Each structure stands twice: as C-alpha cells, then as structure tokens.
Amino acid sequence: MRPANVVTSVADVLAGIAITGVFTQPGALTMQGYLSQVLLLSLSTACLYAGGIVFNDVFDADLDKIERPERAIPSGIITIKQASTLGVVLLIIGIVAAFVCNNISGAIAAAIAFFALLYNKSSKHHPFFGPLNMGFCRGLNLMLGISIVPSLLSAWYPLVIVPIIYIFCITMISRGEVHGGSRRNLYIGSGLYAVVAGTIVYFGLRNNTLLMTAIFVIPFLYMIFKPLLKAIKEPIGKNIGGAVKAGVISLILMDAAWAATFSTIYVALLIACLLPLSMWLSRIFAVT
C-alpha cells in the first residue's frame, strides 16, 4: 500500500481544504464546524491511494516476477485474490467516506478510483497517456479537498493542472528506474518542476504571501532537484529511483506551500509535519 505515499495523498487533500479558506474560519475544526468533513476526506484519500497502489501490484504481478520479485505478490507474502479483495475494500471505503461528506466529494472520489484502475489496467503502458492519467488522479485529489466547500470548485478547479503537471513529470521520469533512463526525459522533468514552482510563486505574489510561500517552495525545490541533477549526471536505475522517491515525498512540501499561500503559516506547518512521517515510512516500506 506504500504507506509513505499515502501520507502525501492526505497532504494533497489538506492543501485543497486550505485553498478554500476553511481553516481560517473561527470554530472550523470543531464537531459543529468542518472537523468531521476533514477527517472523512482524509480517510477517503488514504483509502483511494492505497487501493490504487494495491491494484498496481495486482495488474503487474506477472511483470514483477521478473523486475520486482521482492514485492508482496511475487514473493508469495500475499495472493492475487487476497490483494484484489483488499484493493476493492479500500476503494469502496474511500468512495463511501467521501459521499458521507457530500455528493460532490463522492463523485470526485469515484472518479479517482476509476482513473486509478484505468492507469493500472491499461494506460500506464502508454508513454504520454500513462503519466497524464496518473496526473489526473493527483489533480482530482487536490479537488477532493476543495470539494469540502462544493460552491468553491468552480473558482479553484483550474489549480488541479499543477499536480497534474507535477505527477506527469514524476511518472515520466519513473519509466527509467528499473533499467535506466534518458537524459531527455530528465531535462523535460526539470523544466516541468520549474513550471510547478513558478505557478505557486505566482499565487504567492498575487495573494501577498510570497514570503510564507517561499519558506516551503525553497526546500521543495532543493529536495526534488538534488537527486534529479544526480540522475541527469548519471541516468542509471538507482539514481532515477532516488529522484522519483524524492519527487513523491516532496509533494508534502508543495502542499504546504499551497497552504501558506492561501491559508496560514500554522496550517502550512501542520502539513509540513507530515514530511518526517512520510520519510520515516519510506525507510521501512517501498515508495516506488
């Protein structure tokens, strides 16, 4: 289920909620306010992400016997039937939890589950639509957070393009983590990373929160570019895998930057506190 990655999905939803301004409302995080919806959407995204990852391994079981024999299914720790059951249960919980929040959230959660399964089943094998499909999943995840106030979706849905570009980039780069990759993809990835960071900075300028935004954007850039530059210098599987791992975990800092831009420094710091948890989990469980 890639627990370290699941933490980043929760950060996505919290960032989306921060964009709505919910966290700045008096009494928002009480049972009479938005607390129950925040918890429901956090549970929803965690289950959706974990379920999608489970089905990734289910559909890749035969290939993993050759390329990733240490994974749970090819190593015999769990059967395909058991994994499929777990994946179905997780996706159902994720969709139901979102519907309990509101119908719009439920529809978005169902869309996330659909695109996750579509990626795992077929689109991952396409060099362009695979990364785009995975990007849609993360973009919808940010939208899932924004849907805590459904009326604001029409105003902020264009922001989903940022995680779509970012995950497109990571997915494209990840294609070389087993056998090595090309510098061309890595250079394209570095350019897309710059676009993502530049977009967040733009909103920081527009909202007069540039200083708070920069507090998180700067370490975000350091965390993603340090291993990426190493991979560009020597594009072998190990280095590319390190760049992918850093890209996934760094999502938390990107989400914290969104929160700093649209909410308060306290919310941003709360999201950033998920980073050490994700990094600790990444030492125990695989990220890619």
Give an overview of the whole structure.
It is found in: Membrane. It comes from Mucilaginibacter terrenus. The chain crosses the membrane at residues 6-23, 35-55, 88-119, 155-174, 186-205, 211-229, 241-259, 265-286. The protein has 288 residues and is mostly helical. Helix content is 76%, strand content 0%. It is built from 14 helices and no strands. The longest helix is centred in the first third of the chain and has 25 residues, at 35-59.
Outline: globular
The proportion of strand residues reads: under 5%
Q: What's the number of extended β-strand segments?
A: 0
CATH domain class: Mainly Alpha
Question: Under the CATH scheme, which architecture would be assigned?
Answer: Orthogonal Bundle
Task: Please supply descriptive tags for the structure shown above.
globular; mainly alpha; 288 residues; 14 helices; single chain; Tetracycline Repressor, domain 2
Describe what is shown at a glance.
The chain has 288 residues and is mostly helical. Helix content is 76%, strand content 0%. The protein starts with a helix and ends with a helix.
Detail the topology: elements first, then pairings.
Layout: H1 3-20, H2 35-59, H3 61-67, H4 80-101, H5 103-121, H6 129-146, H7 153-156, H8 161-174, H9 183-206, H10 210-233, H11 237-249, H12 251-262, H13 265-272, H14 274-284
Helix pairs in contact: 1-2, 1-6, 1-12, 1-13, 1-14, 2-4, 2-5, 4-5, 5-6, 6-8, 8-9, 8-11, 9-10, 9-12, 10-11, 10-12, 12-13
